[in-house]
Amino acid sequence: MNYRSEIDGLRAVAVLPVLMFHAGVPFFAGGYVGVDVFFVISGYLITGIIAPEMAEGRFSLIAFYERRIRRIIPCLIAVIGFSLVAAAILFLPGDFMSLSKSVIATILFSSNILFWRQSWYFNAQMDLIPLLHTWSLAVEEQFYILFPPALAVLYRLGRSKLVPIIAALAIASFLLNVWSVEKAPSFAFYMAPTRAWELLTGSLLALGFFPPLRSKAWREGLAFIGIALIVSAVCLFSARTPFPSYYALVPVLGTAFVIYASRDTTCGRILSLGPVVFIGLISYSLYLWHWPIMVFARYYLIDDLSGWNVIAVLLLSLCAAILSWRYIEMPFRRKGIVKRRFLFAAAPTAMLVLTAAGLAGLVSKGWASRVPADVAYLESFKNDSSLRRMDCHRFENSTVALSQSCVLGAPVPPEFAIWGDSHAVELAFVFGKLAEQHQRSVMQVSYSSCPPVMGNGSPGCRKHNDAALRYLIDHSTIRTVFLIAFYDNGKDNRASTYAEGLRESVSKLADAGKHVVLIYPVPRATIDVPSALARYVWNGMRTDAVGSRKGAFLQRNAEILHLLDTLAHLRNVARVIPHDDLCQEETCSVLLEGKPLYFDNHHLSLSGAQHIAPLFERFFASEQRAGLR
């Protein structure tokens, strides 16, 4: 394949938005689509290299994997080694264990599978895993392992069948992606079967699926449209965009248009400018190094990056990438410097050493002996959650019937139910203890990221809420229903449909004769509470002043608080206001009597739920249902 400098320039267009997105730079909320740009480029380049070799009968699988090892492994090993050393200095044991798992998965080119399995809704600290970004490398490596042998088989069937079969596979992968976004969004995001169509789009370009464009005007226009599509995705998409789904067509087609049409165009000349090409040349190192550097900076600062910290981290990432490209990437890519025999011996050895280090991190429970007992105690509250969380709480696409919901408390039919998202879980456990003291029981009806708001949320959430409302209305033994959600999330509760859906839930329950108890927002912390408190103590810093600002909480939740106040005046409706207990004059507490009140940054820990339990005592102690306000 002839060298095309504009393709290296396109790599810069891929990597820079990713960096800006991860650094939280404004107008780059969709910068994650840079990964999709990389996928198309990779599919194009790999197919463009091996397809002619196969057609001429000179393809060697060993030579192909040698090139992949030279390109990928040395720098990856350096980044993993750096991450282990930095984590040994900075990380708490639990976080070191998470890194150890990801080290092993990364070495085995399966980190995308690990992060898919770990991406459950309350794992708020995935953005503190230094190797999280290697999921995309795993997808590419899985493609590199499977695609060349498959392409060789297709070549034997005949070139006339090759392109249609690859096109059919791309369409099948795309349709699986669209289906999975609703059914299993994490699977759709992380896994190779739902991402393969992006790489195969590049393959189709390399195989000449589209005839060459002769018209200069058409090439100019199509290349410009391609760049415009990529830029629009970077600027207009956000973390709330269902992705990949149909939305991924925007950056993927944009990249395909640029590759297809940009040769000898204004767009191509801009992408071929020296500084742009240079960023493209170091893009692999830049992609690998930037995320661990950002993670360790956030971890050390115990806060999000902002202002000069962002600039410093970006510059440090750029310097690390240049050095890595110059002294690691380039020497290993030159066969005259690093011989095949040494490469095939050194790479597996280094990978085995890192795997052993990862296993040691797991066996030693994150090298727990590094930290003092008081630090370990605070960190342990990351696990201070309901003992019934995994078996009583529904996750996306749960098939557990409402009749099989957990009933906590005394062995009697449930008189109470708590209906909500993940914020219901720890309170349900505490409610079970309260109910048991009065020979009563409570049913837990909770679903991941699914507030008790009719007509809102994912398809699975809407189906669950429809069934939950019918069940709660139809079962006469359930007389009191507590409603709770993660209202203080800064986004979902601002839509008018949200207010209408919550009003529908409350009014239908109340009209059916149920007593409805509205649980007001639990203040969200600005930190991962147990981890941050443990790091404060480890660093010799005070924790007594740690907390979130009450004024910011009230301002952020003004609309939902007003809505709940309005609903609380309806017949058969009462309210409980946790922030009256958790917040003082200016600050909302995250630590009381030496115990963190949260197990992450917004879920109450069991200790936190027990702290506000007295607010609910009257409902379980009351023999009469009047005067619950």
Strand order, main sheet: write it out.
Answer: 1-3-2-4-5-7
Per DSSP, what share of the residues sits in E-state strands of 2 or more residues? Answer: 5-15%
Q: Describe the global form.
A: globular
Number of continuous helical runs: 27
How many domains, as an integer?
Answer: 2
Mean of the pLDDT scores? 92
First-to-last CA distance: 76 Å
Number of distinct beta strands:
10
**Poorly predicted runs of 5 or more residues:** 624-629
Biggest sheet architecture: 6 strands, mixed
Report Rg.
27 Å
* Protein structure class: alpha/beta
Helix fraction? 55-70%
What keyword list fits this structure?
Rossmann fold; 629 residues; disordered C terminus; alpha/beta; two-stranded antiparallel ribbon; 60% helix; 2 domains
What does this structure look like?
The chain has 629 residues and is an alpha/beta fold. It folds into 2 domains: 5-367, no CATH class; 387-522 and 549-582 and 609-621, 3-Layer(aba) Sandwich (Rossmann fold). Helix content is 60%, strand content 6%. The protein is built from 27 helices and 10 strands. The chain has helices spanning 5-22, 34-55, 61-90, 93-107, 111-118, 135-157, 159-183, 185-190, 192-206, 216-236, 249-261, 266-271, 274-281, 283-301, 308-333, 340-363, 373-379, 389-392, 424-437, 459-474, 496-511, 529-538, 550-556, 558-567, 578-582, 606-611, 617-621; strands at 407-409, 416-420, 441-446, 480-484, 515-519, 547-549, 573-576, 587-589, 591-592, 595-596. The strands form 3 sheets. The chain has a 6-stranded mixed sheet with strand order 1-3-2-4-5-7. A two-stranded antiparallel ribbon has the order 6-8. The chain has a two-stranded antiparallel ribbon with strand order 9-10. Helix 1 crosses helix 13 and helix 3 (61-90) packs parallel to helix 14. The protein is globular. The N and C termini lie far apart (76 Å). The model is unreliable at 624-629 (pLDDT under 50).
